[in-house]
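re the bet — no i am not wrong, look at it urself. input seq straight from the record:
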Amino acid sequence: MVNIGDELNRILKAFYTYDFPEDESKAIDNLFKIIERTWLGIFNNALIRTNPEITTLQEFAAYNDNGLYGRCDLLFRYADREKLFDFL
């Protein structure tokens, strides 16, 4: 997980470290001005760049016996040695 944090910080430095003239704050203070879908893509990229073995699925419908149950933003699977971890 440390490597994922490092990658997110590289993205921050590359794309979000600039001033917003309208309120004189740094970009990091306004990170949530970016829409949710953008953050899903950023996090998905960080996961895959950190470990190409991580499997991800974004923005997918979830169904149960009664039909459409809802929508999930991100599902990813991380393998650590012989254990699998699924994050939703």
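see?? Helices lie at 2-16, 36-50. told u. also The two ends are 16 Å apart (CA to CA). so pay up
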